């Protein structure tokens, strides 16, 4: 499992490669919060290469979204596979996050 962090314009993009689970959620949280402290306010998490998110992974996304919103920013998600999209719908988290079908769509209009 790895997180690749890059910048596209003024948006910080985090690519999640593998699974977002209890064993690595803290790494994601730490990296995003470090960038938030440095002044970043626009975040896109790209799940193109992610097959599974457990409840702790969902929890960290909710926590990050709240902290980012409190600082006047936004956390968007993109490129969820069908299973992940269903997970977000079943948990009603699709109402909390702006979820986009593609990375480009997620970056547009930020």
Classification by helices and strands = alpha/beta
Could you give the order of the helices and strands? EEHEHEHEH
CATH top level is Alpha Beta
CATH architecture: 2-Layer Sandwich
Approximate strand percentage: 25-35%
Termini separation (Å)? 28 Å
At the third CATH level, what is the topology name? Transcription Regulator spoIIAA
Number of strands: 5
Nearest-integer average pLDDT: 96
How many domains make up the coordinates? 1
If helices are DSSP runs of H or I spanning 4 or more residues, what is the number of helices? Answer: 4
For the biggest β-sheet, the strand order reads 1-2-3-4-5
Query: Helicity range of the residues?
Result: 25-40%
> What is Rg?
12 Å
Overview features:
Transcription Regulator spoIIAA, 110 residues, 5 strands, globular, 5-stranded mixed β-sheet, 34% strand, alpha/beta, 4 helices
Concise summary:
This protein is of the alpha/beta class and 110 residues long. The protein has four helices and five strands; from the N terminus they run E-E-H-E-H-E-H-E-H. The chain has one domain (2-107): STAS domain (Transcription Regulator spoIIAA).
């Amino acid at each position: 499992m790895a997180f690749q962090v890059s910048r596209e314009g003024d948006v910080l993009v985090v690519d999640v490669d593998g699974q977002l689970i209890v064993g690595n959620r803290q790494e994601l949280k730490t990296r995003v919060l470090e960038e938030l402290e440095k002044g970043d306010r626009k975040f896109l998490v790209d799940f193109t290469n992610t097959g599974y998110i457990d409840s702790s992974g969902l929890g960290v996304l909710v926590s990050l979204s709240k902290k980012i919103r409190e600082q006047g920013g936004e956390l968007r998600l993109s490129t969820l596979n069908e299973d992940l999209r269903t997970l977000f719908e079943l948990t009603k988290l699709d109402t909390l996050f702006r979820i986009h079908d593609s990375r480009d769509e997620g970056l547009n209009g930020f």
